[in-house]
């Protein structure tokens, strides 16, 4: 499928899509593309399972000229202004917590508006080193349920080989108010049942007076599927996980080959 309507919104996942495996990107090249996009009235949206505060750090100096669908759609920001947050109700959070914390194959994080939290009995030096890049506002607490914060989501961290089995179990046993979402290699987010990247993107698109026909999107993982389906043209990265390329309209070069920038350079 080709883009038949003007492009006014470009949405991109980060890890495995916009970022190379070493978490870098060609910043001067992107800045030049972004300037050309803005000159044509086109907006750039970062759509990721990561925290808003973590995502902004990648765009030092111009972070507020970009919009964000963070936490897999649980936190939506339009050029520095928060327009939506999804809250897991306390009673539901307690049920989810009880199920997650009892599983010895994984570690459990609670992601709130103020920070991300991990229990002291799970906060090993090895784990903190592994996740600190993704959760720069990480706090260690005695009990997740004692945290004074709004619950945006839970994040379960595990060995990649255990992810599919754990996802299937969570999908069958979690309360209907929430849903598990495979957010990357070795992590599963538990978010509100109605939340995903496509819904967050749609909020921004409609806020700006456009619709899905004016969007293109890039992704590589299962949590990108709804967004790739939503956009007029969805690009799966050459390195995309199994099943993602089949639902996308087009393929972009791999993340390590700067696939998003390669495509955008041809469009703007």
Automatic annotation (TrEMBL):
InterPro entries: Cof, HAD-like_sf, HAD-SF_hydro_IIB, HAD_sf
Protein name (database record): Cof-like hydrolase
């Amino acid at each position: 499928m080709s883009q038949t309507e003007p492009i006014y919104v470009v949405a991109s996942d980060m890890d495995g899509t916009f970022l190379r495996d070493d978490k870098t990107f060609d910043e001067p090249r992107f800045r030049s593309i972004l300037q050309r996009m803005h000159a044509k009235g086109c907006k750039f949206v970062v759509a990721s399972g990561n925290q808003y505060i973590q995502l902004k750090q990648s765009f030092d100096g111009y972070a507020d000229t970009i919009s964000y669908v963070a936490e897999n759609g649980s936190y939506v920001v339009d050029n520095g202004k928060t327009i939506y947050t999804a809250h897991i109700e306390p009673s539901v959070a307690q049920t989810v917590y009880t199920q997650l914390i009892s599983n010895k194959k994984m570690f459990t994080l609670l992601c709130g508006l103020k920070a991300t939290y991990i229990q002291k009995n799970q906060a090993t030096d090895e784990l903190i080193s592994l996740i600190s890049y993704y959760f720069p506002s990480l706090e260690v607490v005695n009990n997740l349920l004692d945290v004074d914060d709004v619950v945006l989501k839970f994040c379960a961290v595990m060995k990649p080989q255990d992810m599919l089995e754990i996802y299937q179990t969570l999908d069958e046993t979690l309360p209907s108010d929430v849903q598990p979402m495979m957010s990357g290699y070795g992590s599963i987010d538990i978010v509100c049942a109605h939340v995903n990247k496509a819904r967050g993107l749609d909020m921004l698109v409609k806020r700006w007076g456009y619709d899905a026909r004016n969007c293109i999107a890039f992704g590589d993982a299962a949590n990108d599927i709804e967004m790739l389906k939503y956009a007029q043209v969805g690009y799966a990265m050459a390195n995309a996980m199994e099943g993602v390329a089949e639902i996308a309209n087009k393929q972009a070069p791999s993340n390590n080959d700067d696939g998003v920038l390669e495509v955008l350079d041809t469009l703007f």
